[in-house]
Design goal:
membrane; SusD-like_N; SusD_RagB_dom; RagB/SusD family nutrient uptake outer membrane protein; cell outer membrane
């Protein structure tokens, strides 16, 4: 049975108070007493409260909590790209614009430097062997906790580099409170070790209890960890760390997941099949989804995602021209060389003869509209709400279609919305495998055929042939200008495919960071070509501002000099000043 993760109930018997500051140094309460850690149910209930901390999906309730330090809302899987070069929110992202300073003076434990969940995980690991159940049963729940601990530390290393590696719950006298950070290399070795333990202990797919983790999901996380760390080490040469072990770990995990249990879903018309993947109430029986977050109407566990996404209320964003331009034409050629490309004089012409995923990710005028007779504050019929029009703004004119669920019934459920979130998707396995094999010097046509080309087959795009890769001087020029390197043509196309297939699934920021391509954020932020006849009431140089080519400039007034990425500091985030004051052994990340 495919595991789908519901919003597991956090039972009050396992909740305890803890101050989240300063590595959570305050004492534990009665859960550490002899009245717990006796039965399998004790382990199960304890872990139930942990699941929602990591398998968030679209969040809960209004789904509007802000995720620090990134600044996007709780439905990170859909909104995470607003801090990347894929998107432009109406109010520019502080992170993307190098204006993130709030947590330099923030309280201890802020800005992502928070170890409360690690403490919860370590408390379990200190005690779970006390239960009077077989070791194999204990291991299943221990595997869940090691999965979450690996995930937590992976996220912390992405944010801060070196972080304290904690294996016990701390007291007010614990020396770890005043220790230096553990070097990145040691932390990531430990992460790799514990995710391997999780893989060994978790049950095989189909053998897990309903709505609990299985071995395949741990393999997926290992794949993500391995590819990120392996490529980060390769392109961030200043670390002087070898990433081959991690790349090999990623490739090995992919190979185990590519054994036949999963496949790219192709059922349906090529003009709809990709978009429909992201507008579902359940992924039960879906061969492409390895882990999903699903909600329960009967338990009134839901989230106001579909309603506010339809309104474009969260972040009020649109896709960027730079993102649009990376999609190939239907002949498999880039827009700079394809005779099929009709130009950018209007969005209607721009979307013709393009990879079908483009018009299923970004709305053409009149497509992916609110239901007839429904007014929810934003619409795309017959045109999006660019500045100068009423309603929630789409500052680039490129309104997102991906994740749009056109169902007023679900919108009216508000905080009990039932739209499901695919958290781990098999397409990412294929993309990661292609990239890992390239970085290992092992990517040939056979690898491309079972990865990139298998994904392209869903929408009928031409196959990528490693011997006849078309030139793309525009994209290569961007790499040369903003990254100081130009990837090999095959790697460029693997990365292109990743950007297209995984668009608005919260992978782009991590990709820019690990490729040392953060300066892609400096590519001027433009929107669609503004056609006055389509927006007769919108005033140029008042409501909207245009580039010399006539494209919308969302930040012409608010960021007149454009976004800036400081490579000397922005690949990592700062540690809160209060934590450094409390523990002088902590040293701030460079140039913060």
């Amino acid at each position: 049975m495919k595991s789908k993760i519901l919003a597991l109930i956090a039972f009050s018997v396992i909740l305890y108070s803890c101050n989240k500051n300063f590595l959570d140094k305050y004492p534990l309460d009665s859960i550490n007493d002899g009245n717990y850690w006796n039965t399998e149910q004790d382990l199960q209930l304890y872990n139930n409260s942990i699941y929602p901390n990591y398998i968030v999906g679209f969040g809960y309730g209004f789904g509007d909590a802000t995720i620090a330090p990134y600044g996007y809302t709780q439905a990170a899987i859909a909104y995470g790209d607003v801090i990347s070069d894929n998107a432009a929110p109406n109010s520019y992202s502080l992170v993307a614009a190098n204006k993130y300073i709030a947590y330099l003076s923030g309280a201890s434990g802020s800005g992502g430097w928070n170890f409360a969940n690690i403490r919860t995980l370590n408390l379990f690991l200190e005690n779970f062997r006390r239960t009077k159940i077989p070791t194999a049963t204990q291991n299943v729940y221990g595997g869940e906790v090691y999965f979450f601990k690996a995930w937590d530390y992976f996220e912390k290393v992405k944010l801060f580099g070196d972080v304290p590696w904690l294996t016990t719950t701390l007291t007010t006298t614990s020396p770890e409170l005043y220790a230096a950070r553990t070097p990145r290399a040691a932390v990531m070795d430990s992460v790799l070790n514990i995710i391997d333990t999780a893989i060994a202990w978790l049950p095989s797919k189909g053998k897990e209890q309903t709505d609990r983790l299985n071995k395949d999901q741990a393999l997926f996380l290992k794949m993500r960890i391995g590819l990120y760390e392996g490529t980060y080490r390769k392109y961030h040469t200043e670390l002087n760390l070898d990433g081959k072990k991690f790349l090999q770990a990623a490739a090995n995990a992919c190979e185990q997941l590519m054994g036949g249990a999963y496949s790219i879903v192709k059922k349906g018309d090529a003009s709809q099949v990709y978009n429909s993947m992201f507008a579902q109430y359940t992924y039960k029986g879906n061969a492409e989804v390895i882990l999903s977050k699903e909600y329960s109407e009967s338990l009134q566990l839901g989230v106001a995602f579909s309603r506010y996404f339809a309104q474009n209320l969260r972040h009020q964003f649109g896709a960027t021209r730079n993102f649009m331009d990376e999609y190939l034409c239907t002949d498999g050629l880039p827009i700079s060389s394809s005779p099929l490309f009709l130009g950018k004089d209007s969005i209607q012409r721009e979307l013709q003869n393009r990879d079908p995923r483009l018009s299923q990710t970004v709305c053409n005028f009149g497509a992916y509209c609110l239901a007839v007779g429904v007014s929810q504050g934003a619409n795309n019929a017959p045109k999006p709400n660019i500045p100068g029009l009423s309603g929630n703004k789409c500052p680039t004119g490129y309104r997102l279609a991906k994740w749009f669920l056109n169902d007023p019934v679900d919108w009216n459920r508000v905080t009990n919305g039932m739209q499901a979130a695919p958290v781990f998707r098999y397409a990412e396995v294929l993309l990661d495998y292609a990239e890992a094999k390239f970085e290992l010097g092992e990517c040939d046509q056979a690898v491309v055929d079972k990865t990139i080309n298998a994904i392209r087959d869903r929408v009928g795009m031409p196959h990528l042939l490693v011997t006849t890769i078309a030139a793309d001087p525009v994209l290569d020029g961007n790499y040369a200008t903003y990254c100081a390197y130009t990837p090999a043509p095959l790697l460029r196309e693997i990365r292109r495919e990743r950007r297209v297939e995984m668009a608005f699934e919260n992978t782009r920021w991590d990709d820019l960071m690990r490729w040392k391509a953060g300066r892609f954020l400096e590519i001027p932020v433009e929107g669609m070509k503004f056609v006055q006849s389509q927006f007769p009431t919108v005033k140029i140089n008042s409501d909207v501002y245009l580039s010399s080519g006539g494209y919308l400039l969302p930040y012409a007034k608010t960021l007149p000099t454009g976004r800036v990425f400081d490579e000397k500091k922005q690949y990592l985030f700062p540690i809160p000043v209060e934590d450094i004051t409390l523990n002088p052994a902590l040293k701030q990340n460079p140039n913060w």
